[in-house]
Batch of 2 targets.
Target 1
Amino acid sequence: MQLSKKILGTLETPCLVIDVDKARANVEVMQKAADQAGCRLRPHIKTHKMPFFARMQTEAGAAGICCAKVSEAEVMASAGLDDIFIAYPMVGSFRIKRAIDLCRKLKRLILGVDSLSCAHALSLAAKQAGVTLEVRLEIDSGLKRSGVVREDAPALAEKIAGMPALNLTGIYTFKGLLYDGAFTHDNHLAGEEEGLILAQTGEKIKALGITINDLSGGSSPTAIETARTGRINEIRPGTYIFKDLLLCKENVARVEDIAVRFAATVVSCPGEDYAVIDGGTKCFPTDQSLNAPPFFFNSYAQVEGHEDLRLTRMNEEHGIITSDTGKTGLTVGQVLTLIPIHVCTAVNMHNSVYLLEKGIIRQAAVEGRGMLV
């Protein structure tokens, strides 16, 4: 993704630029892979947070979308998306109330649960509201985040299935590149295990006489491999639409596939050994630690076209660029483009982005940005 001097000259920096045509190509590749595997694609909107791209995904064939928070789902619903899975424990009366209100407006709303107390509160509120809520049980497949320990899943599923006003229709997990509880570079191995865990857990639940229809898994690094196992019927990747340096390290992207660039202007060159750009921690995410396993990134974003330059230190409004050679060679007013390590958190730093489509640049709001509830 090369931005011309003409395009760079129109930007107010620091900012993000998204190549819409490249994003659309990424969408089509994933949709084709899911279709060939006979698996539904329900993309997670956490990456783009914009109805524009959610519609692009559903128009390409996605069965629906996935959100992390009810506030994200509200944004998508207001834009006409009507089949939404909120893959997050629905805990808190405020959250449940908003989910019930949303349920009445959508063709399909699916909610995540991973505990008895979570399910009980949902059941009580749904019964009082006179609605039935579709739920899926989250399984911990090794990440040790949210999700019931899989050995305990059948017993919990049986209790949830017996609760009034709840309809347990499936199970789901988020695993990423793990195998036997540890990081692996083998996407096939990680995907095979993910499919097996979901299938085996699903069979144990069905053996109790509980009908579940959906087995949902697959992050961007494992989505295609998990789908190809034939053991599940839904995948929920998110990052694939834009891709980033993490996905390159995780063996499912090339730098030329990445549809997003930061643009930042050099605002100060106090010495030849460093320069200052107009983006700091309010612009560039820091969720990936530098020089740490498993990937040992040496810069918070990769400076495009300058292999020796590193963004290694930031304050709120200042980014410090250094060079492996000791001399940056940068000048005040120069505009740099940088490639994000983790694009999901990069987009969430910005209220708006620039969309580049067929050579035309326009600014667009990131409507789902900052939706925390």
Target 2
Amino acid sequence: MITDADSKPKLQVFTPDTSFTPEAADWQNLVQARQPLKLEITWAIFERNDIPADGGPFVGGMYPPFRIE
């Protein structure tokens, strides 16, 4: 999730991919948001559409690395 300087959510994405490119309107929303922005990555390991007991959710880095372009 990306939040603004007031901790208000500006963009939240759920994706199985290791990269994500926001739509133009989302970029505009981020540009106009009160700076600085904060990115928090929350992830989990899914098995058969469920998160096992030791599968998260986790906050922070992940493997493979997630990147914003």
